Amino acid sequence: MTTFLELLANGISVGAVYALIALGFVIIFKATEVVNFAHASLLLAGGFVVARLHSSIGFWAALLLGVAGAAAVGVLIEFLIIRRANVSSHSVLAIVTIGVDIVLTTELTRRIGTEVLALGDPWRDQVVHLGAVGIAQTRVVALAVAAVLITAFLLAFKHTGWGVAMRATAEDPETAALMGVRRGRVSMGAWAVAGALATVAALFLCVFPTPGLDRSTTFAAMKAFPAAILGGLDSTTGALVGGLIIGVTETLMSGYQNDLAFLGRGIGDVAPFLVMIVVLLIRPAGLFGTRELARV
Amino acid sequence: MDVHAPPPPEDPGLVVRDLAVNYGPVTALRGISLSVPRGSIVAVLGGNGAGKSTLLRAVSGTLRFHRGGITAGEIVFGRTRLSGTAASAVVARGVVQVPEGRRVFARMTVEENLRAGSLGARDRRAAAGARERVHTLFPVLAERARQRAGLLSGGEQQMLAIGRALMARPAMLLLDEPTLGLAPMMAARIAETVREINAQGTTVLLVEQNAAMALSLASQAYVLEVGEVALSGPAADLARSDEVRRRYLGIEDDRAASPAGASAGRPALARWSA
């Protein structure tokens, strides 16, 4: 029972981090109808900035710069490529983002090399004990930070002019333009927010018990794709629920993999994608999605 | 006083000159010209595919959403050119469109729809005043503020679409078939509101298939046919012209068709009007 509770708590925490990534993925899709396959490289870029700078300027300043840096990379991708690519179909743009992802990831992994970079976080490897249940301090912080960021995002999405412009554009871009909403700004904002959230997610993907930022971090980030897709690509609620489902599934499957030996080792890494496939078989638009995935 | 001095340049309102629009290989407008003087209501009539909505898209700068573009001519409002500018710049100049089919943001609340309308306004701080004006014109929008717009009736959605446009405090309102699909009572109500909005100082360009209603509101009217201006003139004259009566008002010339007594004995279904 204790094992189960520990795994569940870890799963929820990991899930909240996936939710941060999936949320960025979803808002880019809502604002621009582009499925952003470059998301994992945004995350890697943000994490890389933090890893490189924390020893010279301190962790918090490095985190701030990492968030700003990934946001800037997002804005640049939007401004230089997505906006200018005069293509007839959004699926072509999705493929363009795969290209962007390959270029960025290749360059970043070249710089990272074979190192495992520490992020210099202040939580280190302490463990918090709640009764018999022990949880890494980083996981507790991850959950708290993700909860705060997600709440702040949802409030802004609901109540600010930016949020109203974003939702109006997502629902009907032409009519939003008739209201004077500038689509370019809305879409730039979406890419910036997505980059910023991805950096925070990168931080929590790379701290204890993970050894640090290395070239495999993008694979961890990839698990947020099934989270966004199974929740429904155009639903913020879907991103949150999808993130939690993926996080909990992955952690439980990894934790009990010795009991699930017939499924083979490493089922935890595969489970997110299996869950996604099963959900899509039953609900093709995802749990909360309204648009058919056929257009992707 | 120098009699040779040119008269002070009067604000001409909206002027469209020789406007031609293509959607790819398809020509939608073939060089139309019209003008909407400040403070007036001008109607544009015509059947489906005549180019009415294309004209409004060209003014609002949203042709690119339909893969269309202006190939010739220009659109000027006041002293600024609207053709070639972005949709947001057109709104910022005070020219705001109420699109055909209402197009309210169905997943957002009534209040949020109004808020969306004020996003491109010239002075966003004036939004509170604008909201008050909208709520006075359409009290139902205040009552339903927190309801999802998709749950409103067709007439209420049309009110919301007009109210949303008014949130930008427009100098000129472009209305695309505001009575389309509405019950006669509601259509009359909308017509009355358009008259009131105009009386408060907003210039109106009204595109309609409902010619009787449009001609009763407008001072000037243009009839579009396959992308060209077929007829134009004072609305009252057009309403009397045989061609408009026959083609857009559905009125046959009774004197020629039947004796006067017969038409009195057979009550024709009068076309409803505002």
TrEMBL record, chain A:
Compartment(s) of residence: Cell membrane
Gene Ontology CC terms: plasma membrane
UniProt GO MF annotations: transmembrane transporter activity
Alphabetical keyword list: Amino-acid transport, Cell membrane, Membrane, Transmembrane, Transmembrane helix, Transport
GO BP annotations, alphabetical order: amino acid transport
Pfam families cross-referenced by the UniProt entry: BPD_transp_2
Transmembrane segments: 7-28, 34-51, 58-81, 140-157, 188-208, 228-248, 260-282
Stored InterPro entries: ABC_transp_permease, BCAA_transport_permease
UniProt KW Membrane keyword: yes
Membrane topology value: Multi-pass membrane protein
Domain of life: Bacteria
Family named by the database record: Belongs to the binding-protein-dependent transport system permease family. LivHM subfamily.
PANTHER family on file: ABC TRANSPORTER PERMEASE PROTEIN, BRANCHED-CHAIN AMINO ACID TRANSPORT SYSTEM PERMEASE PROTEIN LIVH
Name assigned to this protein: Amino acid/amide ABC transporter membrane protein 1, HAAT family
TrEMBL record, chain B:
Keywords tagged on the record: Amino-acid transport, ATP-binding, Nucleotide-binding, Transport
UniProt keyword Kinase present: no
Domain of life: Bacteria
Organism lineage: Bacteria, Bacillati, Actinomycetota, Actinomycetes, Streptosporangiales
Domain ABC transporter: 14-251
KW ATP-binding (keyword) present: yes
The protein's name: Amino acid/amide ABC transporter ATP-binding protein 2, HAAT family
GO BP field: L-amino acid transport
